[in-house]
Amino acid sequence: MEIYEIEFKGRRRERYGNPLSVLVEVGEYVIVEAERGEHSGKVVSRSEALEPEPDLRSILRPGTPEDRECLVKNRLREQEAFRTCREKILERDLEMKLVDVEYQFDGNKISFYFTADGRIDFRELVRCLAAIYRTRIDMRQIGARDETKRMCWTGSCGRPLCCGTFLHQFRPVTTQAAQHQNLSHNSSKLLGACGRLKCCLLYEEGYYEEAGKRFPKLGARIATQLGPGIVEKIDVVGDFVTVAHDSGVVERLPRAMMGEGDCDGQKCRRDVESSVEHDHDHAIVHEG
Q: What is the mean pLDDT of the chain?
């Protein structure tokens, strides 16, 4: 069974079947079945399902030049609806931020996307909008990440945001990802345009987590030629360890001097008595 992924405004994606065997290619616009009526979107991928997927809506037909003209008109109508809805929100002093408006292709539904800190009673607003546009009104509350995804702003790296280009699903990002990479938890540089931890913190987390097993733990007591000290910093990329000695001296050592094998602060312990031998090839965990 052929499954097509269709992308709509705001990079919203849904899966559709093709029971009518409509001839479509990736990158083309198609008209698809909607909850009530028809909608238009772009085919972004095609795959074969091993088992039938229930409740999939269908691709109805390929898009035409006339359909594209209708889409352009809908975009203009969306701008007008955005201004109108924002005015009505201000009139009612509702604590909500309007983010985007999406017209269904056939005009049978208008979706208003908004953010808010809590639940909003927008029933009166819906009645007002329905009286103006004489169609079904759909109010959708979204989160900060979904807002940023729809807007597709520019990130601090100078490139379009990942969620606005190629990142289709959000994975939970925790401070543990920053911890594995030895990044400051309090740094504002860790926050993305949405105000949440950057999704890109996950891209190299696996590498840092695995590579970190070869290093002693931060805060571990070790002994080097210069005497006992505490692991103050780990440079996974440079393959160095910074040790702050009890004497006040700060030493930067290549990890190669710490011996072979996993060195996670538990497995690379050495005999305490050997810490006085000033071994040139290894750093030694200090037990005392």
A: 84
